Amino acid sequence: MSKRIAVVGATGAVGAEMISALIRRRFPVGEIRLLASRRSAGRKLDFNETRIAVEALREDAIPDVDIALFSAGGAISKKFAPLFAKKGCVVIDNSSAWRMDPDVPLVVPEVNPQDARKHKGIIANPNCSTIQMVHALKPIYDEAGIRRIVVATYQSVSGAGWSAIMELESQTRDVLDGMPTKPQKFPHQIAFNCIPHIGPFLENGYTEEEMKMVDETRKILGDDTITVSATAVRVPVVRGHGEAVNVQTAKKLTAARAREILAATPNIVVLDDPANALYPLQTTATDDDRTFVGRIREDISTECGLDMWIVSDNLLKGAATNAVQIAELLL
Amino acid sequence: MSKRIAVVGATGAVGAEMISALIRRRFPVGEIRLLASRRSAGRKLDFNETRIAVEALREDAIPDVDIALFSAGGAISKKFAPLFAKKGCVVIDNSSAWRMDPDVPLVVPEVNPQDARKHKGIIANPNCSTIQMVHALKPIYDEAGIRRIVVATYQSVSGAGWSAIMELESQTRDVLDGMPTKPQKFPHQIAFNCIPHIGPFLENGYTEEEMKMVDETRKILGDDTITVSATAVRVPVVRGHGEAVNVQTAKKLTAARAREILAATPNIVVLDDPANALYPLQTTATDDDRTFVGRIREDISTECGLDMWIVSDNLLKGAATNAVQIAELLL
After folding, report:
1. pLDDT-based confidence at residue A1 (cuts at 50, 70, 90)
2. Which end of chain A has less neighbouring CB within 10 Å, N or C?
């Protein structure tokens, strides 16, 4: 039953969480290979009781494994995922390189697990902002249909890696100390500031991050009639993404019924007790594998609509946990 | 021409900005009286070259002035605004106490200056989040009509006063130092966190802050057919509110035309050059009297829609500046 696993991009923020998720979820790991750039080769990482040396990722030394979890950026995935797949392994790729490829399933295990079976060697892990949104919207889609989604995101910096986390922390200290800030990873100061710019801008005025939420949502739910408009904003938070989601349904759905079906959805936690100031927060979602939903209310601006606030840990359900869950589907 | 002015709540975060705005905008102040709670009485504040002693606000000592700028909370306004008005002065009130009173005009000078003339002694200053939104939406309303608005806010802590600013700063230091946080002003940790809860919750699941954006928008634009759904979120930013606004118009409006009419609107700055990472930020709006609009794009999720990102300084255009602009209408 046990599998030989590779983690490609093992020293990154998501890679580290992939290793943790394999351990925490007791994935049956027979052998583990940790790969990263040449720069990180030789570093030692813990896996359970064992110290494992990180190997350099090289075209001429693709390891023999059953499943490879990739989180090393789009360019690396584009080049290396087919090389791994050709050796007979299944690649679960966290980059955006393969997500919209018609031959590559794009999977959230609670939403479209059946798609994972159709893989041809590569399965794509969706964008963090998309995963938590479709996770929460799937039961609503099944119950009432979805016509249109308007979403605004409150995305933490950790999606941009370790250097982004360090930039937020050091900039924050600088601002508190009255020092000037020098943006490097982000286009502007992120400390005590929100930046409505994640990923490159496209011709239509949306960013790539925003269009991922449009295209991936349709692919995962398997319904091209759903329309989506997204505004993706980086906020000065270390971990966890928040989303203000307005959804127009085909049939009327009450907030009470939405709470009921959400509470019955695997790995969804409904936190929705305003009287006790209970709703999802980035601080409460941090280090948790689940997706949190609250502020569920009937939209007063249209006949069939719901508003909700969805939060999840972007490094876990938004990345590492979802990838390991896909691996679990392959067992 | 010069007016006798009172600032009620002169020692608060907004009160301080009202005093600055009177000076900066060269309002013809003949005499100025600064009032606050008994606790602050005796404190000295600068007004141009003069040091002025803060007086305690007392029912039996309503000062003889022409215009009173109130920013002392709803309860104080409810009680004292009529007492000031009865003495013949015009109260411009920044609290929510009078905003929806049919006898009280609710005014954004660039939007509905004509309403100011209908006052019966009290004019209400709208909620900060509403002001910047209707300021930017007015030209769009005039050009293409507005059917529905879906807005998510990114509101800084300064709207909640000095103590909120201090709480964000001290909590941020605590988190950076690995210390536990003790929320006091906010229901949860605000440092490195977003809280989807501003103002009390209402029966329909929305908060008071969110419903202000619904009700006030209709009153200011004078059109009850406009529907609005809002999600108001506090973000760890000191000053400036961001808003992701999705607006469905009655007629199709191109992004180019929207930019054109917005750029021609007084006190609106269009910052919309994605290729150069130019869009409004809270840091750039801070200490500026104007409203900034960017990320203007045609909504891909519906036939007649626009998305935009609106930012303004919540203490200035969102409060003090708008109040002083209303006073200017009275000259």
Report:
1. confident
2. N
Residue B161: Cβ within 10 Å count:
16
Q: How many Å is the maximal CA-CA distance in chain B?
A: 60
| Displacement of CA A238 from its chain's centroid (Å) | 15
Q: What is the mean pLDDT of each run of 10 residues along chain B (331 residues)?
A: 96 96 97 96 94 97 97 97 97 98 98 98 98 98 98 97 96 97 96 98 98 98 98 98 98 98 98 97 98 98 98 98 98 95
User: Hey, are the CB atoms on A154 and B194 less than 8 Å from each other?
Assistant: yes
Mutant choice from B193, B207, B292 vs A, greatest count of A C-beta within 10 A: B193
End-to-end CA distance of chain B: 7
Paired tokens of A212: 């991922």
Q: Which residue has the tokens 């992701």?
A: B244
Percent of chain A with pLDDT over 90: 99
Sequence-ordered list of residues with C-beta below 8 angstroms from that of A143, at least 6 positions apart, any chain: A251, A253, A257, A258, A261
* A3-125+320-329 to CATH, choices 3.40.50.720, 3.40.50.300, 3.40.50.980, 3.40.50.150: 3.40.50.720
Q: Which of A196, A244, A302 sits opposite B148 (nearest CB)?
A: A302
Rg (CA), chain A: 20
Element (H, E) at B133: helix B128-144
Active-site residue list of A: 128, 241
Question: What 3-state DSSP class applies to B106?
Answer: strand
Q: Is the pTM of this model over 0.95?
A: yes
**Number of other residues whose CB lies within 10 A of the CB of residue A168:** 26
| Calpha distance B323→B69 (Å, rounded) | 7
Give backbone dihedrals phi and psi of B301, rounded to 5 degrees, phi first.
Answer: -100, -5
Nearest alpha-carbon partner for A320 in A288, A284, A285: A288
Nearest C-alpha neighbor of A244 from the set A171, A186, A297: A297
Mean pLDDT of chain A: 97
Q: What pLDDT does residue B136 have?
A: 98
